[in-house]
Write a structure and sequence with these properties.
- The chain is α/β, with parallel strands linked by helices.
- Helix content is about 40%, strand content about 10%.
- The chain is built from 16 helices and eleven strands.
- It has helices at about 5-15, 20-35, 45-60, 105-110, 155-160, 180-185, 220-230, 265, 275-290, 300-320, 340-350, 355-365, 370-395, 420, 430-435, 465-470, and strands at about 40-45, 75, 115-120, 165-170, 185-190, 210-215, 260-265, 295, 400, 440-445, 450-455.
- Helix 4 links the parallel strand 2 (about 75) and strand 3 (about 115-120).
Length: about 475
């Protein structure tokens, strides 16, 4: 029993060809068959089956009351809170913690009759590009289990890749949805900043974090966005107008009327894998053949996006993660002679190596001696990047660039220089710095059969137009 989209599932449920219970059992069996990939931290088997039975009764007796997402089985990244369920953020510091409320996005999908099947593994507090920084171990790529899944939403990407759910909810701070989507051969969408409530997303860097969606097609992403993009008084950074459902729906975008740019600096970058480069240029040629205007543009700030991103996100992380001190909740060191020692021991034992590194870096750039030299300067660069992107969108409908400079690498490959891993984010952090919507769509496989994608970006409030465009592709 395999369905390609929510639409197919709902048709099958309403016609009696299958039941929600059978659907959940199918996904649960798939989860069990790929346990070794380590995509799930926890599976809500009994709860999912119970809700499936309830939904089947609703389909049978009250089909007119069904929500928009009935039949949609969802996995949730371990950075999104779900009431009365454990959440770890991929970290030991939150061992034993159970959330007392649900994220706004979780409440929205449950209200529309979606079923949550489990929480997925991720890099600790979303800090990583490979999903090898988790307290629960690395997530393996289903195409080649010796290779990474991408990060930080690697578990979410693999959950869709292996057909253990229909849709996965992740978070995207600098490409954490789009990069693993590219490496696992699925679609990964990051809405524009302020389009979806961040309430209930465990913070890494608040001005960058955004809920993201992974799926096997654009239509399912559209269905989720139609539900989760709702006004929320708990998130003061949300748009008050121009939310997803209010945006103009252009089902049939005429390609011959579109102007599309590609960032030539990104395509000619030495870091880009030759096979990805070649296939990406073929993709651009195909767009031209369909009548679209496709032009290369120069983005002179490309070399600054990664250092700007890491200065600002580590600064915000050092502030956001100060709440994990062993006092209020989560892990507390057993042996401590004083409050100060308890704080130090709790954080030293609870946080992983990568998180400690970024907290220290963030504390450094926020220190009095270096605040203006690093943090202030990075904020100025971020403004320049946003202004430059806005000026591009005055002339073009969409901008295209690679999703990742390379395909998934071997888990055991540990670069001596950490900057090598950070540079894996070179193409995805741009959208988060500018706060614009972006999606990674599957493009092909290299000679080793490893997937890779290509990224499409649009201006703010054009999330729906972006998805409609990608749906046509």
């Amino acid at each position: 029993m395999e369905y390609n989209s929510l639409k197919d599932i709902q048709i099958a449920l309403l016609s009696g060809k299958t039941t929600t219970e059978k659907l959940v059992i199918f996904y649960l069996n798939n989860i069990e068959s790929v346990r070794d990939l380590n995509a799930y931290i926890e599976v809500y088997q009994e709860e999912a089956l119970s809700k499936a039975k309830e939904l089947d009764q609703k389909i049978k007796h009250h089909p007119d009351t069904l929500g928009k997402l009935f039949g949609c089985i969802i996995s949730v990244k371990d950075l999104i809170v779900y009431k009365n369920h454990k959440v770890n953020a991929g970290s030991g510091i939150l061992d034993g913690f159970e959330s007392q409320f649900s994220a706004t996005a979780i409440e929205a999908v449950l209200k529309e009759d979606a079923i949550i099947i489990g929480r997925t593994n991720c890099d600790e507090f979303g800090m990583g590009s490979a999903n090898t920084n988790s307290h629960f171990g690395s997530v393996k790529n289903a195409v080649d289990p010796e290779k990474i899944s991408g990060g930080s939403s690697g578990g979410a990407a693999v959950s869709v890749q292996t057909n253990t759910c229909l849709v996965a909810l992740g978070t995207d701070t600098g490409g954490s949805v789009r990069q693993p989507a590219s490496m696992c051969g699925v679609y990964g969408f990051k809405p524009g900043y302020g389009m979806v409530s961040r309430y209930g997303l465990i913070a890494y860097a608040s001005s960058f974090d955004q809920l993201g969606i992974l799926a096997n097609n654009v239509q399912d992403i559209d269905a989720i966005m139609s539900v989760v993009s709702v006004r929320d008084d708990f998130d003061a950074t949300m748009y008050q107008t121009g939310l997803y459902c209010e945006q103009l729906s252009l089902e049939n975008l005429a390609l011959d009327t579109l102007k599309i740019a590609y960032i030539s600096d990104a395509f000619e970058n030495d870091a880009l894998d030759p096979e990805i480069k070649s296939t990406s240029y073929q993709f651009l040629d195909e767009l031209k053949s369909k009548g679209a205007t496709v032009e290369g543009i120069h983005f002179k700030l490309l070399d600054y996006v990664v250092p700007c991103y890491y200065i600002l996100t580590t600064a915000e992380a050092s502030s956001n993660l100060s709440r994990y001190d062993g006092v209020k909740y989560g892990h507390r060191a057993e042996r401590a002679g004083s409050p100060e020692e308890m704080y130090v021991n709790s954080r030293s034992e609870g946080f992983g190596k990568e998180v400690k590194k970024r907290i220290m870096l963030g504390s450094f750039v926020l220190s009095e001696a270096y605040y203006d030299a690093y943090f202030t300067k990075a904020q100025q660069v971020r403004r320049l990047i946003k202004d430059q992107m806005d000026s591009f969108f005055d002339h073009y409908d969409f901008i295209i660039m690679p999703s990742s400079p390379k395909t998934a690498w071997y888990i055991h490959e540990k670069p001596n220089d950490p900057l090598e891993i950070y540079m894996a984010d070179i193409y995805t952090v741009l959208a988060n710095l500018a706060g614009i919507p972006a999606i990674s769509i599957p493009l092909g496989n290299n000679t080793d059969k490893m997937p890779f994608g290509i990224q499409v970006l649009s201006r703010v409030h054009n999330d729906r137009k972006l998805l409609n465009f990608c749906n046509q592709l």
